[in-house]
Amino acid sequence: MSSNDISVLKEIRGGEKRVILLPDGVARLTEHGYKVDVEDGAGVLSGYSNADYEAAGARIVDTRSAWTNSRLVLKYKAPDPTEYTFFRGDMHLASFMHAEGNLTLTEAMKASGMSAYALEFFETGRGDFPVPVSDNEISGKLAILMAAYHLQSHMGGRGVLLSSISGAPKPEVVVIGYGNAGGAAAHLAAAMGANVTVFGTRWDGLRRFQANAPGNIQCHVNEPELFEEKVLNADLVVGAILISTHDTPVMLPEDMVRRMKKGAVIVDVTCGYGSGYMPTFDRLTTHDAPFYERFGVLHCKIDAMPASVPVTAAHATNANIWRYIRSLADHVLRGEEDMTSQRGCLLSNGRIVHPELDRHIEMAAG
Fold it and tell me: What angle is formed at CA 28 by the lines to CA 23 and CA 32, rounded to 5 degrees?
């Protein structure tokens, strides 16, 4: 039976160095009256020692205690299969879960009778998803930085500098989507001097985005002929729609990719499931091997792209997330209503309650 309030876990997946809360975030919880356990070494790779967490009012504990002492358990990413043995019926687990793409995880959580919350699905009454904002912005900017390096000829790219240079044509960038990730990608590419074309599906949203964009960003509703024209002229295409899955309509078909400039780059920031809107992506890539070539075009699709900058990512997330974690704790531990976190609830006492998770299970079964 759990004896404490909240636990902060250390990440164990390969390459993952972030931690869900930094010491000042933990201090916000302890000042609010919660007892917090932090797993030994949880913040070291993000730049914080056990002593820093102790100074914030936390207790440092071993792995098993971190999983079993508290009712509310916090992680950055979804649990590794080796951690499923810690699942239990009175646990409330919150992380950037992405369980709709991991049915094995879903079944393990369901069998345990636990409750689970996907931080990426926390939703305000206005329809905003406020928690993953910083990670999305980092992903959008990293898409531009990584593409800029790989556009060099010795990396297999076109030999184009993703910046304006007097006497040379400006590079051409297409960004699909104008949310946190797409917007960050578009603005950074524009700041570097590229001509940027942003495509979306809603003109009202595009108009608002255009109003705050520099002159070298042009926004268009996604019309097939114009989209094809811009993609075939692009040095870089960044895909940053909100979600891509088995039933998302294809936007960048194989035939179009075959006709793109040789050495052009495509970065899929969305990292959805199934063939999605960019079917020439048949695999995820990694930070160690970020790109592969298909039809003469470099492809990059790294899940958890911000993991390569854990110090920046942990600070940015912590500055935003602590208030949502505190409200979740108030709901789980004190019975207070919090609709934002409840909209992100995937399972309640082992029962699936989120429609997106149900939808993916039905697609997998069909």
Answer: 140
Alpha-carbon distances of 226 from 135, 219, 222, rounded to whole Å: 30, 11, 8
End-to-end Cα, the chain, rounded Å: 39
**CA 249 distance to own-chain centroid:** 21
pLDDT in tens, 152-210: 999 999 999 999 999 999 999 999 999 999 999 999 999 999 999 999 999 999 999 99
Q: Which domains, from first to last, does the chain contain?
A: 4-122+310-365 (3.40.50.720), 133-307 (3.40.50.720)
What value does the CA radius of gyration of the chain take, rounded to a whole number of Å?
A: 21
Q: Which amino acid is at 191?
A: A
> Under DSSP, is residue 21 helix (H, G, I), strand (E, B) or coil?
coil
CA torsion angle 98 102 104 107 (round to 10): 50
Give the predicted TM-score (pTM) of the model.
Answer: 0.92
73 vs 236: CA distance, rounded Å = 40
Closest by alpha carbon to 153, among 264, 64, 247? 264
